[in-house]
Write a structure and sequence with these properties.
The chain is built from 1 helix and 13 strands, in the order βββββββββββββα. It has 209 residues and is mainly beta. Strands 1-2-3-6-5-4 form a 6-stranded antiparallel beta barrel. It has a 6-stranded antiparallel β-barrel with strand order 8-9-10-13-12-11. The protein is elongated, with a radius of gyration of 20 Å. It starts with 6 loop residues before the first strand and ends with a helix.
Length: 209
């Protein structure tokens, strides 16, 4: 599951709703046991084994979460390491319910029915929220086009929820409802965009630049 030298992000306090992540490198894995080294050596000072953690990482084209227990800290002549015992099954970490990609700082925009170029507020592998002055309706079907990193993705969405905002704007929550699977389909674009943004957010939360 894990690859040597793979960078993962570890949440030291999984029960805390303020998700703070710390970058670590995988050194080795044997069955359900992995050895990691935190890139910030100060993290070891706040860990007292056995210590529950959550490990976030990329698995194929998805971000996932693996619960674990740090059962020992290993002191070597060069560095300190953490030995972790994996707990339970890998869980998705990128659904809208558990990890939306907030896009306000990315200047990401979408074309709505070729009538409006609007800001995308958040995005996931299955949908998005946009800010627009267009008057739309619950369950209305809207064609979306997004240009991202030289590619154009397009497809139908359906309005799932509506919230009125200031200055005549509306926040529309949309869910993708297409069945195409080619490289320009909206669903593929949403997956790629949300994955890239989440990766940058994970780096930022972990203090990387």
């Amino acid at each position: 599951m894990f690859k040597p030298n793979e960078i993962v992000h570890v949440q030291i306090d999984p029960g805390n709703t303020n998700r703070t992540l710390h970058a670590a490198r995988i050194l080795e894995q044997t069955d359900n046991q992995i050895t990691i080294i935190f890139l910030n050596s100060g993290i070891y000072d706040i860990i007292a084994p056995p210590h529950e953690v959550a490990i976030f990482f990329k698995d194929g084209n998805k971000f996932v979460r693996q619960n674990a227990i740090i059962d020992s800290i290993i002191d070597t002549s060069k560095s300190r390491l953490a030995s972790c015992h994996l707990q339970g099954e890998v869980e998705p970490a990128e659904s809208r319910e558990c990890f939306r990609a907030i896009t306000v700082l990315t200047d990401l925009k979408a074309h709505l029915d070729n009538r409006d170029l609007c800001d995308i507020l958040d995005i996931s592998a299955s949908g998005m929220a946009v800010k627009s002055k267009l008057v739309l309706y619950q369950n209305q079907k809207i064609d979306i086009k997004i240009e991202y990193e030289g590619e154009i993705y397009h497809g139908p969405t359906r309005i799932r929820n509506i919230r009125k905002m200031a200055k005549g704007y509306y926040r529309y929550g949309m869910v993708c409802c297409e069945k195409r699977s080619d490289k320009t389909c909206l669903m593929k674009g949403l997956t790629q965009i949300s994955m890239n943004i989440q990766r940058e957010q994970l780096k930022r939360l972990a203090g990387q630049h």
